[in-house]
Amino acid sequence: MSLQPASTSQTATTSQDACYISLLGLAEYFRTSQPPNIKRCIQCLQALFTFNPPSKVEARTHLQMGQILMTYTHNIDKAREHLEKAWKLSESLLNFDDVKFDTASMLAELYKQIDQVPLAKAMLRKAIELSQNNVYWHCKLLLQLSQLHANDKEYTLASELLAVGAESADESSATYLKVLFLLSRAMILMIERKTNDVLALLNSAGAIIDNSIANPHQKEYLKVFFLVLQVCYYLALGQVKTVKPSLKQLQMSIQTIMAPNWPADEAKYRTISYKFDSWVTVFKCPTILKKRKRSGQTLKSLQLEVTKTFKKPLKINVWGFVP
């Protein structure tokens, strides 16, 4: 039996793979040029489709096209077209979670931008259903959907999703994520003025932060998040004297994360298994406080600002405290 056809086929496949790699390399070169040459980048990615690539390569390329169009252009219609093709191709593929759920997340964001929130919610619910065996993406998508419901003042639905997230994180022994969900849910309940439920969640989260978070950087950021919520909770109840110890602890935590030996965010999150820093704004909270502290804001002025904020409708988003 001749081996020539198999050899020829193998050579063709190798050559095709080399073309994919070359075009992707060129696309990235043009994207990262100064200034970026997005037109050339898109042309390189578009050229990949002429080789009739496998489904996974095609889906990933459509996702990349959608990402670039959303980031660098105003061509939302074309971005939508590519992302919807990426979702159609990747939805049923096994062992392709990153592309599948990244596509779902970005497509939901696009739908939100064009005021088609029902489509965004439906997309996220479908992706959540498919992601139950991937705790990273399952939690991310739950948070994203709960944010949409919170934006629409559907606080009960947002709270339910966050409760599911806390349970999923607990089942996966993802303690850090569990605390994020508990604190995010406390914020939603605070908006609804369900103070008794808020207290229970804060007590539960506080105990976990004190006793079960080993990573000192994760612990300090969660502590800041917790203390901000605790301050708001006490002020909401008019317990001005009770809030003072929490404000002092908050100041100490801010000083800790401002210390010269505190590592940069990039260094910290490279060692974190679940890199929520890229899409959970809770990490913005200490960053905001850092900037304000550098500008000379004192503990007293912070207290006044929080008090003033709470006298107005409380501006809280499900990812983190937004004064």
Helix content: over 70%
Structural class: mainly alpha
Strand content: under 5%
Shape: elongated
Please trace the helix and strand order, writing H or E for each element.
HHHHHHHHHHHHHHHEE
Number of helices: 15
Q: Major β-sheet, in short?
A: 2 strands, antiparallel
Q: Could you tell me the mean pLDDT? A: 80
Distance between the termini: 75 Å
Give unreliable regions as ranges: 1-10, 270-300, 305-323
Count all strands and give the number: 2
Task: Characterise the protein shown here.
- With 323 residues, the chain is an all-alpha fold.
- Helix content is 75%, strand content 1%.
- It is built from 15 helices and 2 strands.
- It has helices at 4-32, 38-48, 55-72, 76-90, 97-113, 117-130, 135-151, 155-171, 175-191, 195-212, 216-236, 240-258, 265-269, 284-294, 299-311, and strands at residues 316-317, 320-321.
- A two-stranded antiparallel sheet has the order 1-2.
- Strand 1 and strand 2 form a beta hairpin.
- Helix 3 (55-72) runs parallel beside helix 5 (97-113), helix 5 (97-113) packs parallel to helix 7 (135-151) and helix 9 packs antiparallel against helix 10 (195-212).
- The chain starts with a helix and ends with a strand.
- The model is unreliable at 1-10, 270-300 and 305-323 (pLDDT under 50).
